[in-house]
Specification:
This protein is an alpha/beta fold. It folds into two domains: about 400 residues, Histone deacetylase domain (Arginase, Chain A, 3-Layer(aba) Sandwich); about 230 residues, Arginase, Chain A (3-Layer(aba) Sandwich), CATH 3.40.800.20. It is built from 22 helices and 16 strands. The chain has an eight-stranded parallel beta sheet with strand order 2-1-3-8-7-4-5-6, with helices on both faces. Strand 15, helix 20 and strand 16 form a beta-alpha-beta unit. The structure holds N-(4-aminobutyl)acetamide and zinc ion.
């Protein structure tokens, strides 16, 4: 299994710059690259990466995507004087040539291909390329929006040819629509392109009809182009996460890519003058973390836009830090998507219903009541009370943003906490099967356990035998609570007792919100610290007497032999609830008669590492060594193995989730993905 993170940066790409006055282009400055790199050095992230040199992309490689004419024009600018450069530049929408532009653009292409090679050859697991000029607006025969060659599109085409890949996912989280990338792949079903972008009902650049949610791809590529237009500025962390839960992730897991490329623009982050959005740098850690669960972890992040130097460089650091496997920071702010975001999400889900099994039971009746075109909704949809404040324009707001970045980021990026996992292992035979990085801790002394139990947990623990098993769980939990390790595994013969003690112990220790996911048909011991514990019970039959509490949710679930219902449960329910709750510790228990397979369980662990600063206690009941091993791997950040062929979800299960969602979305707002009564 590949490990390590590649970093590609070449100072020469800072030589491309604007030589004349142009208020549209003057934000695309060389410092975007150098200050991002400086910040990476500052957080000691550079030294933790595998340095890979850039190279020039060859003409042949550029021609994978671009026309010979386009290449010739670009090449001819190398020897031009300023006057001529200005004249050629004026042929394009928002582009400037410098004598070094051609050379830099070839380095940008080559750097992207070096990254693909490093990941595909197994030299590293993932990586990031810091490049200029960016690429995603560039088209077969045209420079556009600061982009000359489409780095990411060339990388995808190259990966298809050189490695015979059949499914590549491109995630474009830049705040602009990568229309160039869309045009290049719109008829190609082997490349799934996802882009969210500031749109404002076509008022925002590049102001194209084909950037709307109903551009789903053409011909054989129908369904493989996903556009999520943002019709308001000020979108924030919860809007981006909702977009991942309810749009991108279900489709991406169904697509099952062999490689993921990110068109990584950070103009979608807070403070950016182009995007005017509100997402903080830590959200990029979450987005990165989610994408790391796909394609066996093969993830190539390639820089696009990002024009607020501080916001850009902090977000780059968050991305690289996450690629390296560090704990994911807890997201800040209230977790509720805004109405306009929900509306866009609903529209794109409806538009893609014909092409995706995960959306096959989507309710699209709202489409008949009103036109499907979003610009007609513009006037109808002004509900200021549920909408966030729009533009950040005032000086005051700008100062607030700078302050926030200055203080907040230092706290979460310094120091570099290593991710450590603890386990108590009963048999020596199983110990060697666990990842080397796991620290084996000594069980807690029995007298200590007895003292603890008789003082606080006597009502939970009645038998001597269960008392004994608590020693290992408490030893591991203690390491997590005192932040010596991030994650831990404890074996337990009676998971429900261990969990009950673990939950109460954590709350007593001072944790305010503990999320517990209990998989399996065990009677759950009711907790007395209501509100500080949220229990999601994935079991076959409901335990009726506990349903009154809003902090006990029973997800009656029996995984069918071939269904992929699990994804709808995770993305449509478990993750949205978990993110709404904002736990500071996650306890995941796996008991007997578990209704999920081993792969599903390890993906659940992998995804939930995004919460609670990656603090997870795993309590595993039956000594199934395979399960132990895959949970241990997931806890240290190894990617989840392949799921195999995607089977459609069953209507009954999807319906169940929908009912739960309707019931609970007032309490857990990230569940919202449709707007009631049409608008
Ligand atoms: C790569 C990128 C933006 C172009 C904006 C032109 N381009 N108004 O972010
Ligand atoms: Zn952009």
């Amino acid at each position: 299994m590949a490990s390590g993170t590649a970093l590609i940066y070449d100072e020469e790409m800072t030589t491309h710059k604007l030589l004349w006055n142009d208020p549209i282009c003057d934000i695309e400055v060389p410092e975007r690259l150098s200050s991002s790199y400086e910040q990476l050095k500052c957080y000691h992230l550079v030294e933790r990466c595998v340095r890979v040199p850039a190279r020039e992309g060859s003409e042949e490689e550029i021609l994978l995507v671009h026309s010979p004419e386009h290449l010739e024009v670009a090449k001819s600018t190398q020897t031009m004087d300023e006057e001529e450069l200005k004249r050629v530049s004026a042929n394009y929408d928002a582009f400037f040539f410098h004598p070094s532009t051609y050379r830099c653009a070839r380095l940008a292409v080559g750097a992207s291909l070096q990254l693909v090679d490093s990941v595909m050859s197994g030299k590293v697991c993932n990586g990031m390329a810091l490049v200029r000029p960016p690429g995603h607006h560039s088209q077969r025969s045209a420079a556009n929006g600061f982009c000359l060659f489409n780095n990411v599109a060339i990388a995808a085409e190259y990966a298809k040819r050189k490695y015979g890949l059949q499914r590549i996912l491109i995630v474009d989280w830049d705040v602009h629509h990568g229309q160039g990338t869309q045009y290049i792949f719109e008829e190609d079903p082997s490349v799934l392109y996802f882009s969210w972008h500031r749109y404002e009902h076509q008022k925002f650049w590049p102001s194209l009809k084909e950037s709307d949610y109903d551009a789903v791809g053409l011909g054989r590529g129908k369904g493989s182009n996903i556009n999520l237009p943002w019709n308001k500025v000020g979108m924030g962390n919860s809007d981006y996460l909702a977009a991942f839960f309810h749009v991108l992730l279900p489709m991406a897991f169904e697509f099952d890519p062999e490689l993921v490329l990110v068109s990584s623009g950070y103009d979608s982050g807070i403070g950016d003058p182009e995007g005017q959005m509100n997402a903080t740098p830590d959200v990029f850690a979450h987005l990165t973390h989610f994408l790391m669960q796909l394609a066996n972890g093969k993830l190539c992040v390639i820089l696009e836009g990002g024009y607020h130097l501080k916001s850009l460089s902090e977000s780059v650091c968050m991305t690289v830090k996450t690629l390296l496997g560090d704990p994911v920071p807890q997201i800040s702010g209230e977790m509720a998507p805004c109405l306009s975001a929900i509306e866009s999400i609903q529209n794109v889900r409806a538009a893609h219903k014909p092409y995706w099994k995960c959306l096959m039971y989507e309710d699209t009746s709202f489409l008949q009541n009103l036109s499907t075109k979003s610009h007609l909704l513009e006037k109808a949809n002004t509900n200021p009370s549920t909408e966030h404040e729009s533009k950040i324009t005032s000086k005051d707001e700008m100062v607030k943003v700078e302050r926030f970045l200055e203080l907040h980021m230092k706290n979460i990026l310094f120091p570099v906490p290593p991710i450590k996992t603890a386990a108590t292992i009963e048999s020596k035979a199983s110990a060697h099967l666990l990842p080397l990085s796991i620290r084996v801790v000594k069980e807690m002394d029995m007298n200590e356990v007895k003292a603890l139990v008789s003082a606080f947990y006597a009502d939970l623990v009645k038998e001597e035998e269960t008392l004994l098993s608590l020693g290992s769980m408490l030893a591991v939990l203690d390491k997590i609570l005192t932040k010596q390790v991030c994650t831990g595994i404890a074996e337990s013969p009676t998971a429900s007792v261990s969990v009950a003690v673990a939950l109460r112990h954590s709350v007593r220790f001072g944790f305010q919100r503990v999320l517990c996911i209990f998989v399996g048909d065990r009677e759950i011991i009711p907790n007395t610290e209501d509100g500080r514990i949220l229990m999601i019970h994935v079991c076959e039959k409901q335990q009726s007497e506990k349903t009154n509490s809003k902090h006990y949710i029973s997800l009656n679930w029996k995984e069918g032999a071939e269904g992929n219902d699990f994804f709808s449960a995770v993305f449509g329910f478990i993750l949205p609830v978990a993110y709404s709750y904002q736990a500071n510790l996650t306890v995941i228990a796996v008991g007997p008669n578990k209704s999920l397979g081993i792969n599903e369980i390890s993906l659940l662990f992998g995804l939930l590492r995004g919460l609670a600063e990656s603090r997870i206690l795993a309590v595993i009941e039956n000594t199934e060594i395979n399960l132990m091993q895959s949970v241990a791997k997931a806890l240290v950040g190894d990617p989840t193995p392949d799921f195999g062929v995607y089977a459609p979800p069953t209507q009954e299960k999807v319906h169940k989730i929908k009912i739960l969602r309707d019931q609970l979305q007032q309490e857990w707002k990230m569940l919202q993905c449709s707007v009631k009564n049409g608008i």
